[in-house]
């Protein structure tokens, strides 16, 4: 019999305005890389990482959404499958912070009720051009009963912690409810296509993307 090499599979989703650094955060988290140019995500991508959380092996599948509004019809369809959401803004962009309530609304409208949501202020290395104070964002997060972290994908500051804490919160919630089944599908009614590649092992990542025409994609099966 083939045994699973992990105890849990968790699905997280990165959302937020274009350019806030979602893809860079995911690259830093999954493979400790940084991309200095802005190559806008088209539709949706994903990466995987194996993590040890409190002695349990967790396979974390992180979906990286495009922040551009024109992809919203595609990206919205991934909200419901997410167990945890990382909502990212850029501390040096007031505009990206002011869009956070709109993203929260989208999350509330499209996610399951108990989805774990966390707010992330990225680019702390740009302190000299900061446009959002820590206190302001923390107060907003408290008012909305969500955690808040400041991070920098560029200089590695605090990147692991929000991912780890979201996973831990999801696991706590799942232990009180029915466990997620891995082999389930997402129906996509817009122009979406999948492709992916895998490299397994502790700390390694799996990458894939969604960009053309299929009506149903069995994401988890196709990549594990
Ligand atoms: N200084 C600094 N720049 C960053 C940081 N994270 C990302 N960037 C830069 O911000 C730009 C946008 O980063 P991306 O990760 O592509 O942004 P995104 O949120 O994925 O954007 P979309 O895919 O269009 O939604 C790139 O030029 C990155 O190099 C950071 O922590 N510090
Ligand atoms: Mg991106």
Automatic annotation (TrEMBL):
GO molecular function, one term: GTPase activity
Keywords: GTP-binding, Lipoprotein, Membrane, Nucleotide-binding, Prenylation
Coiled coil: none
InterPro entries linked: P-loop_NTPase, Small_GTP-bd, Small_GTPase, Small_GTPase_Rab
Lineage top rank: taxon: Eukaryota
Compartmental location: Endomembrane system
Principal location listed in the UniProt entry: membrane
Signal peptide: none
GO cellular component, one term: endomembrane system
Family: Belongs to the small GTPase superfamily. Rab family.
Protein name: Uncharacterized protein
Organism: Dreissena polymorpha
